[in-house]
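Morning run. Coffee first, then this:
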Amino acid sequence: MNNAMTWFEIPALDYDRAKTFYTTILGLEITDMPMPDGKYGFFPHNKDGYGSGGGIMQHESMKPTTDGPNLYLDAGEDLSIALAKVEPAGGKIIQPKMAIGENGFMALFIDTEGNKIALHSMK
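And here it is:
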């Protein structure tokens, strides 16, 4: 096993709103994928390398929540850049950027769908 996590899915009540939010704060492209009875989009990921990939999913079986596991998204070089875009894009910061020792920095926010999500960077 290379990594404990291989895939993640972020629940969305409004796929297009969620896609716009994550595209805005992370500066990445989310690729739409046809899905019966719902909507799905992939975050960019290296299919052949280490790490994990994931997407946004609007489906009746998926419910946004602030309870449950923390999902940490890579904010790039400095999470301050992505974090500054959270509230203008419709999210809410609930834990400002904080140092986590030799593991870099993290912050928590509530996205436009009501999910609690974390950002991580080494700077």
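The chain has one domain: 7-121. Good start to the day.
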